[in-house]
Every structure is written in C-alpha cells, then in structure tokens.
Amino acid sequence: MPRTTLRQLNGFDETPAKLADSTLVLIDYQNTYTTGVMELDGWQPALDAAARLLDRARREGAKVIHVVNDGGEGTPYDIRAEIGRIHPSVAAADGEPVVVKQAPDAFHGTELGRLVDEAGRGDLVIAGFMTHMCVAFTAQGAFLRGNRPTVVADACATRALPVNGTELDAQGVHLSALATIADLYGVVVPAQEDLG
C-alpha cells in the first residue's frame, strides 16, 4: 500500500490544473543544459515535451511566463551569450514575459509573483530544467505564496549527482525531486496529456 503524503494528510486538492485556466511557467530551458559541462540527461525528450506543452498552452489561452537564470558574463548561464539563451523550440513569443532570476526559486528577487498575480490565475503549470533545483524550488515558492502548482514530469530533466562517495543517476535525482514536490508542494502529472 502506498505511503500517505503530506498533501493527503493536509487534505490538499490532488486534481491537476486545467491548462486553459492556468499560468504556464517555463523554467530555464536554456542552451546551457543542452551541451557542455551542464548538459542534462534526457534534455531532448524533455524539451520536445515542453514544446508540445507550450503549443497547447498558447492554443488554449493559458498565460505563459518564461524564466531564465543569469549567472553573469562568461558563465554557462550568461543570458547575453548564445549558451544562456532560451532554446529556440520554446522561445518566448511577443507578449510573453521573460523573468530573469539568480536563485533556484524563480519567485525570489524577481517580478514573477507580480506577473502571476496580474494573470489572475491561482493554478500554475510548471516545467523546466533542472527538476531537482529550479523546478522543485519554484514549485515550493509557488506553494508557499498560496498558488497551486502542477508539475509536468516529462517536460523536466536533470543530471546525475554525487552523494556520499557515490553517484545518483539522473533518473533517480529526477524521481526524487518529483517525489518531494508531490509530497507537499504540488501535483505532479506524467505528461501534458494528464492536465485538465
């Protein structure tokens, strides 16, 4: 029998967000994660899933907000250089804001909260890179400010990480992060088809 989650103990709604009634927050789909030292395992299928999610959100009239991380000039997160730009397959369209952040929680020190509030939708659909870092911490930030996040698992990816002298593979890191989100901070769905 599956263990009880903190969400279940608290009686939180487990219904996935309805995309058309939500704000889609796309996190750090930067070239940073497609090549070089920060290349993620499974980035291409996740990016393809994100492109499908974005296309559906635009068709259904969801609000869309893009987020990028700026690590400064000369870093893999330099948004002034090609390496730090949003991948063309999910680039912002005219009228879609791009929030620049410098911390894993995209609400921290940015205008994301104001943009989410102005959109007037309590439900957020979140996807991006990396699952265990900016996706998880932005879901937490959304939850703590009173929004209801739903994370789309197949549109997220991460990388293997060292721990206690061994390495946890990328799939293990990805699933652990999704489990943390689903335990308290939000609803996790396998794919955009599972959204309302």
Coarse shape: globular
Largest sheet features: 6 strands, parallel
Number of strands: 8
| Poorly predicted parts | none
Arrangement of strands in the largest sheet: 3-2-1-4-5-8
Query: How large is the radius of gyration?
Result: 16 Å
How much helix is in the residues?
Answer: 25-40%
Number of helices: 5
- The tally of domains stands at 1
CATH superfamily grouping:
Isochorismatase-like
Quaternary form? single chain
The secondary structure category is alpha/beta
Strand content: 15-25%
- The CATH architecture: 3-Layer(aba) Sandwich
CATH class placement: Alpha Beta
CATH topology: Rossmann fold
Describe what is shown at a glance:
By secondary structure, the protein is of the alpha/beta class. It has helices at 6-10, 43-60, 112-119, 131-144, 170-185, and strands at residues 23-27, 63-69, 98-101, 123-128, 148-152, 161-163, 166-168, 187-189.
